[in-house]
């Protein structure tokens, strides 16, 4: 019976680690540098970092050609050097464009469109080899990405959008500290994707660890936890003292 329980715990642990590694959510990280304003106060040029999370089940084609896919973000925030971490309360989207001819790039914006979105890094679809011939860019990791696993970080040229400092329908980016505006300009962009583990799997894993610990240290039901642990410590001390005296090292 004991062996069956141990086998069950082992199989459950294997399932949890496999599921936790798949990740139901993705974390997108865009890093760049630019100028803008927050609640009417200008800043920059400053380094900033956008972090967004999304559910992988929400991927969908945005364009008829299928080259542009995207999904709505569940959460989004931006950390601006000197201003701190701001929660973006407006609806945002992450998009991936890939074309065999024109290349691939990632986008972060207010709408499921590349219009008004932060763009980059750009990876060309074709590159020139040492012989001077143009060949498909096999190193374009963004184009080959499966939309489920980790990616990057990858860096390259991009474009900062013009986010207005006044409320203009779906183009304005609202944060918990006011309207965030960006000045459109070319900029280097670094993009990273990090899978997030299933919450349910982590809960089950915690239960397995707790059960294993309880099986490892069984408390005497007739004593309180503190009394039982104290008795165990005193017994261990006596045993250590006897061993020390036998070895001639007792005090």
Radius of gyration: 27 Å
Number of strands: 15
| Global shape | globular
Q: Quote the average pLDDT.
A: 79
- Low-confidence residue ranges: 11-21, 217-225, 239-251
Count of runs of 4 or more consecutive helical residues: 4
Binned, the helix content reads 25-40%
* Gap between N and C termini: 46 Å
How would you classify the helix and strand content by structural class? Answer: alpha+beta
Strand content: 35-45%
Which H/E pattern describes the elements?
Answer: HEEEEEEEEEEEHEEEEHH
Quick one: biggest sheet?
8 strands, antiparallel
**Total individual domains:** 2
Describe the structure.
This protein is of the alpha+beta class and 251 residues long. It folds into two domains: 2-10 and 200-247, no CATH class; 24-196, no CATH class. It has four helices and 15 strands. It has helices at 2-22, 141-144, 199-216, 225-247, and strands spanning 25-38, 41-55, 60-61, 68-72, 75-80, 84-87, 93-99, 103-109, 118-119, 126-128, 134-136, 151-160, 173-175, 178-182, 185-196. The strands form three sheets. Strands 1, 2, 5, 6, 12, 13, 14 and 15 form an eight-stranded antiparallel sheet that branches. The longest helix has 23 residues, at 225-247. The radius of gyration is 27 Å and the shape is globular. The relative contact order is 0.17. The model is unreliable at 11-21, 217-225 and 239-251 (pLDDT under 50).
List keywords for this structure.
2 domains, 8-stranded antiparallel beta sheet, 26% helix, 5-stranded antiparallel beta sheet, 251 residues
């Amino acid at each position: 019976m004991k062996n069956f329980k141990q086998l069950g715990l082992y199989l459950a642990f294997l399932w949890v680690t496999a599921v936790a590694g798949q990740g139901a959510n993705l974390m997108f990280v865009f890093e760049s540098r630019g100028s803008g304003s927050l609640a009417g106060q200008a800043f920059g040029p400053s380094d900033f970092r956008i972090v967004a999370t999304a559910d992988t089940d929400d991927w969908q084609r945005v364009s008829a050609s299928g080259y542009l896919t995207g999904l709505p973000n569940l959460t989004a925030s931006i950390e601006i050097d000197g201003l701190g971490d701001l929660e973006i309360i407006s609806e945002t989207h992450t998009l991936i464009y890939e074309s065999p001819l024109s290349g691939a790039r990632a986008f972060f914006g207010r709408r499921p469109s590349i219009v008004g979105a932060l763009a980059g890094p750009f990876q060309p679809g074709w590159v020139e080899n040492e012989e001077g011939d143009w060949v498909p860019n096999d190193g374009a990791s963004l184009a080959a990405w499966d939309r489920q696993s980790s990616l990057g970080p990858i860096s390259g040229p991009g474009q900062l959008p013009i986010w207005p400092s006044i409320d203009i329908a779906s183009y304005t980016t609202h944060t918990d500290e006011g309207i965030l505006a960006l000045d459109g300009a070319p900029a280097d962009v670094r993009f990273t994707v990090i899978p997030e583990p299933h919450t349910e799997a982590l809960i089950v894993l915690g239960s397995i660890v707790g059960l294993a610990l309880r099986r490892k240290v069984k408390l005497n039901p007739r004593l309180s936890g503190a009394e039982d642990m104290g008795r165990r410590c005193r017994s261990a001390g006596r045993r250590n003292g006897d061993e020390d005296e036998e070895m001639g090292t007792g005090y």
